[in-house]
Design goal:
The chain is an all-alpha fold. The protein has three helices and no strands.
Length: 71
């Protein structure tokens, strides 16, 4: 009787454009130190997920292009 083991890992759910806009708006409103408050406005997102999304993808001035030859 081998029962199938359930994985404890959650499936990664990508952020939507709407969530990204909401995070940017809320950071503008409350600042980038109030992640619990910001996460409370997003359904099923933790403060850590919101902080990571903002700092790694949404922070103003973040450059996502290719390196230039000078760099």
């Amino acid at each position: 009787k081998n029962a199938l083991k359930k994985s404890n890992r959650k499936t990664r759910v990508p952020f939507t454009q709407e969530e990204d806009e909401k995070i940017k708006y809320l950071v503008n409103l409350y600042g980038n130190k109030h992640w619990s408050l910001i996460a409370s406005y997003l359904n099923k997102r933790t403060p850590k997920q919101c902080r990571d999304r903002y700092t790694n993808y949404l922070v103003p001035g973040l450059f996502k292009g290719e390196w230039s030859n000078e760099e």
